[in-house]
């Protein structure tokens, strides 16, 4: 009896410890030592979190960095300049929840910038609930994907002019939990609002990012503009707390999740930006345009992302949702 009880306790502890060690040992790291003097990068959501650290890392390599965010980024700009000694940092205020604001940003960039070498579609959010934008789109889906889809189209000319250039969509392995179809690409209001719907919307938006990178790689073949989607890893951000609050007993759930899952297994933020840096900095990744990267390696995407007919339908529907003009279609 005592032996059985001991094994019941001992085995889960051993498994937990092994998984914890494995998670830490398999963290990808970017080893590309490239200086980016003369290059320009635009990062959405660069005012905080992974976006800020990505901006900091690129500025530290001499890159001209444009931080586009809904919040005032002047303090962020000063912080990056002080830490890197690179004064070539620009801030742009825009709001992904407004397609008009996205268009205004693109117009500004196309007018003021001579080149754009890296477009990093980083901004993201989760746990929104039943909230829709002035464009009639679910806010979570618009921030995570629709806005970036439009921005990419509007900047494609500048990216081509600056080639070789790269487009990076920050995605997630949570894309594997999607329930994406044409009918819920813009999640219906009568189905939104629950914690499970929030998770589905987040997963769907991340799948769309993977699809977009893959489709862009085909459409831009021969232009020297390449596209990628990346999973930053299980990184601690405030998205977790936002999701937890949507559940009953959310505070208790979050504290338990934080204690037993987040703290032992989550990457630190610096580890979380390594894969994005890898696809931006490493030249050899151009041979893997359109691919999904996890821990600085090509990873198998969700099955639906590899279905060309499904991808085409989603792409065409997205063009309509963001109201692309005929001359803006890639």
TrEMBL record:
<dbReference type="Pfam" id="PF00106">
    <property type="entry name" value="adh_short"/>
</dbReference>
<dbReference type="InterPro" id="IPR002347">
    <property type="entry name" value="SDR_fam"/>
</dbReference>
<dbReference type="GO" id="GO:0016491">
    <property type="term" value="F:oxidoreductase activity"/>
</dbReference>
<dbReference type="InterPro" id="IPR036291">
    <property type="entry name" value="NAD(P)-bd_dom_sf"/>
</dbReference>
<keyword id="KW-0560">Oxidoreductase</keyword>
<protein>
    <submittedName>
        <fullName>Uncharacterized protein</fullName>
    </submittedName>
</protein>
């Amino acid at each position: 009896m005592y032996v059985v009880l001991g094994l019941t306790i001992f085995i889960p502890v051993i498994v937990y410890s092994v998984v914890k060690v494995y998670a830490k040992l398999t963290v990808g790291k970017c080893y590309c030592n490239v200086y980016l003097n003369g290059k320009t990068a635009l990062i959405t959501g660069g005012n905080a979190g992974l976006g800020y650290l990505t901006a900091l890392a690129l500025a530290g390599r001499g890159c001209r960095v444009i931080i586009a965010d809904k919040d005032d980024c002047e303090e962020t700009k000063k912080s990056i300049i002080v830490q890197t000694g690179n004064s070539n940092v620009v801030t742009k205020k825009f709001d992904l929840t407004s397609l008009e604001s996205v268009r205004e940003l693109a117009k500004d960039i196309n007018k003021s910038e001579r080149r754009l070498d890296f477009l990093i579609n980083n901004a993201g959010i989760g746990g929104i609930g039943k909230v829709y934008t002035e464009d009639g789109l679910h806010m979570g889906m618009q921030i995570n994907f629709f806005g970036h889809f439009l921005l990419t189209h509007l900047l494609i000319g500048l990216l081509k002019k600056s080639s070789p250039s790269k487009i990076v969509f920050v995605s997630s392995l949570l894309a594997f939990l999607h329930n994406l179809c044409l009918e819920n690409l813009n999640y219906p209001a009568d189905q939104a609002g629950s914690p499970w719907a929030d998770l589905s919307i987040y997963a769907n938006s991340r799948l769309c990012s993977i699809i977009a990178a893959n489709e862009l790689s085909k459409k831009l073949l021969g232009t020297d503009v390449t596209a990628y989607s990346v999973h930053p890893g299980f990184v601690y951000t405030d998205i977790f707390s936002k999701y937890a609050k949507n559940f009953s007993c959310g505070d208790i759930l979050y504290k338990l999740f934080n204690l037993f899952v987040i703290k032992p297994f989550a990457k630190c933020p610096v580890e979380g930006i390594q894969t994005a840096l890898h696809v931006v900095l490493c030249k050899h990744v151009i041979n893997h345009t359109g691919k999904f990267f996890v821990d600085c390696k090509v990873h198998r995407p969700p099955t639906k992302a590899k279905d060309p007919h499904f991808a085409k339908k989603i792409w065409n529907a997205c063009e309509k949702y963001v109201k692309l003009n005929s001359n803006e279609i890639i």
